[in-house]
Design goal:
Blueprint: H1 10-18, H2 24-36, E1 54-55, E2 61-65, H3 73-76, H4 84-95, E3 116-120, H5 133-149, E4 155-159, H6 161-173, E5 190-194, E6 197-202, H7 207-210, H8 217-231
Parallel strand pairs: 2-3, 2-4, 4-6
Antiparallel strand pairs: 1-3, 5-6
Length: about 230
């Protein structure tokens, strides 16, 4: 892509994400979910499209998740919005001072992020929450564009191993020296991608982790504090 072809703002990139049709399997699945809905959301007009990133363009903290949830982001049109994962994440961001409120229910609920931007490895909800490698690859250019646009980033905060691996691949594409074998993912894992840019890992905020106690509020708050220290 030539420099003049780059979108001039994140808003333009968000529009491009929303209109993406690269993955037939994901588009078919998301549209199907939007049409059949879940019983408690029958009165919702589901989003049913790829879900763009959200947050502060001047953010120093860039959170990368896995993918929208079928009845979360795929329903509401905003990352980590309208599901239990989002309940956990935004409550923690509010405690840490990154969000003006602890809840994220819909695109018009008044949520604002400060010094934080959130996006995902895959922008469409995948069946069984498992995007295929080629689908992750198809979405990688969106991460590349965000990398370029988020000029103040100091921490990439990867939620789960797939996001961690995607962040390392992203860093390699942008000439960061990532060793082989790559740094291992773990909760609280940390790797300096370049001076003043640190990759930090956390268990994903999925119900599978938060409901079983694999990831607690205290554990997540501690890793966010680690991110805050790396941002300074």
């Amino acid at each position: 892509m030539t420099p003049h072809a780059m979108p001039s703002s994140l808003d333009q990139l968000h529009t491009e994400v929303e209109n993406c049709q690269r993955c037939d399997r994901l588009r078919t699945y998301c549209i199907g979910v939007a049409q059949t809905k879940r019983r408690q959301y029958l009165d919702w007009d589901y989003w049913g499209r790829p879900v763009p990133g959200y947050g502060d363009p001047k953010a120093r903290l860039w959170i990368i998740g896995l993918a929208p949830a079928a009845h979360g982001g795929n329903r509401t049109g905003r990352v980590f919005t309208g599901d239990r994962s989002g309940d956990f994440l935004y409550a923690a961001l509010h405690r840490a001072g990154f969000a003006n409120q602890p809840t994220s229910i819909s695109r018009d609920d008044g949520l604002k992020l400060r010094d934080c931007y959130i996006s995902a490895t895959a922008r469409c909800a995948p069946p069984a929450n498992k995007p295929l490698p080629e689908e992750v690859s198809n979405c990688s250019s969106f991460l590349d564009r965000e990398w370029s646009m988020l000029g103040r980033k100091r921490v990439i905060f990867a939620l789960g191993k797939i996001a961690w691996d995607a962040a390392l691949a992203l860093a390699r594409r942008h000439e960061c020296l990532v060793p082989k074998p790559a740094p291992a993912f773990g909760h609280g894992a940390k790797f300096m991608l370049m001076p003043r840019l640190t990759l930090i890992g956390s268990y994903h905020v999925s119900q599978q982790n938060t409901f079983t106690g694999k990831l607690t509020n205290a554990m997540f708050d501690e890793v966010l504090r680690q991110a805050l220290r790396a941002m300074s």
